[in-house]
Amino acid sequence: MTTATPTAPPTGTHPAWTAPAPLFDGVLATDTATLAAYAADGEAALAALPSRPARDGAQQALAERVLSAGRDARRAFLALHAEAVYDELTAARSRHLRLTELLRAAADRFPGLVPTAAQMAVEDAFVQAEKDGREIDQAIFCAAVLRSPSAGAHLVDAMLLPTSRALDLLGAFREAGRVELDTVLVERIGEAGHITFRNEHCLNAEDNRLIADLETAVDLVLLDDRIRVGVLRGGVVDHPRYRGRRVFSAGINLKDLRNGDISFIEFLLGRELGYINKMYRGLLTAAQNPVWAERTLQKPWIGAVDAFAIGGGMQLLLVLDHVIAEEGAYFSLPAAEEGIVPGLGNLRLGRLTGAREARRVILGGRRIDTADPDAHLVCDQVVPAGQLTEAVDAAVRHLSAPAVAANRRMLALTEEPLDLFRSYLAEFAVVQVARSYSEDVLAKVERRWQRSQARN
Predict the structure, then answer these.
(1) Could you tell me how far CA 27 lies from the centroid of its own chain?
(2) For 193-240, what is each residue's pLDDT tens digit?
(3) Per the CB 3.0–4.6 Å rule, which of 11, 109, 366, 367 could disulfide with 360?
(4) The pLDDT of residue 250 is above 50
């Protein structure tokens, strides 16, 4: 390999990179050293190039060859050692690490397997289209762990545990019955735990901050023994078209996606393994107990939809036990338009609507309005806007019955077995991260951003 200066090479020139693909022998220690050396060689080649926005065509082609070869090497290494790597990082599964902790430990113990914190910090400084896609390497690792029935199940457990932030806030919440987070309000009203989205500047769209706040809020509702039912509802927004009105959710914040501020770990994968899975499967409180019913805290959940539930907002409804919408509201999963995968919507929507209707919604972009004859497939009640709060209160009373939590637990076991969830997420991880860096998605979010800038 020739050596280049660390500054930008002149236009039209680039260093050579001819490192042969690594050969792994199946022994973890030697294969770890082999991968580390190969990855270091690739990083040296990348370091000799300017950042992606400043590269010419030849330089970018070289960067893509280096990145692609590194990913092939990681896949080959993990095909041999995924479970052994996970066991070493978790002390033979005696400790539970959340996704961020797991990746940090993997970067330290297995150099070159996943990006380091420093590499991600450099990457995070760029908009999505100008990144090298280090998150793709994170997805390769997460998918390999999730494909393992044993390691994957242990990781799912880790993500079902209460967050440290929620545990820190629990005493204050139990005493006051109210916690205000940056983008979420959590209140105990009677026997209900009300979670109100307050990301008002973007129609309650989901971003990294909202995802973190929602997981804290869900933990608090599940941990408070005075709460029997959880309620999700959008707060009042300040968008000109909806100012002064409640809105449930506009889905993923596409502006943040364009700007590179939607994290694969904290958002795209973390939301599915975190707060949404906690609502569906419950909060893990006794990890060592082999009896699932005695390991988790579960409560029924109600969704109150004002105006619309788009994208991620509609995905939430698919795990709730009772959905109430105001007249004129609508639901949609605009995956075809946005170009990304609608979370676990592909896994769950067909259970409610049937396969053909699910294809019309996900592939064809069909919007379901409350006035449609089949609106009952995704919501249980449609009420006049002024009666939504009253309808929620009535649903809380109904779902507070002691047998409800036990029966919803058994329904979840039947509808979506843990292995089905785990194996879907393994494939989702690699497909979703690839879509978030694909040319068509980048072009779409850029066009939307340009239009928004023109209006301002």
Answers:
(1) 34
(2) 999 999 999 999 999 999 999 999 999 999 999 999 999 999 999 988
(3) 366
(4) yes
pTM for the full predicted model = 0.93
Among all chains, which residue has been given the structure tokens 């690839």?
434
How does pLDDT run across 371-391, given as a tens digit for each residue?
999 999 999 999 998 999 999
**Cβ(166)–Cβ(195) under 8 Å?**
no
Summary mean pLDDT of the chain: 93
Q: What is the pLDDT of residue 456?
A: 63
Assess contact for 39 and 70: CB atoms under 8 A. Answer: yes
Q: At 205, which amino acid appears?
A: A
Strand runs (DSSP E) across 254-366, as ranges?
283-284, 296-297, 301-305, 308-310, 322-326, 330-332
Q: What are phi and psi of 283, to 5 degrees?
A: -90, 130
419 near 148, Cβ under 8 Å? no
Q: What percent of the chain has pLDDT over 90?
A: 87
Is 223 in contact with 165 (CB distance < 8 Å)? no
Cα Rg of the chain (Å, integer): 23
Q: Are 263 and 250 in contact (CB under 8 A)?
A: no
Sign of CA dihedral 94, 98, 102, 104: negative
Helices 149-160 and 418-436, axial angle in degrees (round to 10):
80
Give kind and range of the element (H or E) at residue 175.
helix 164-176
- Residue 380 phi/psi, 5-degree rounding, is -90, -30
Q: Is the dihedral of CA 348, 353, 356, 362 positive or negative?
A: negative
Q: Alpha carbon of 199 to those of 207, 235, 332, 338: distances in Å?
A: 9, 8, 20, 21
CA angle 434, 437, 443 (to 5 degrees): 135
Amino acid at 207: D
Angle between helices 164-176 and 208-223 (to 10 degrees): 60
Residue 104 confidence (pLDDT): 98
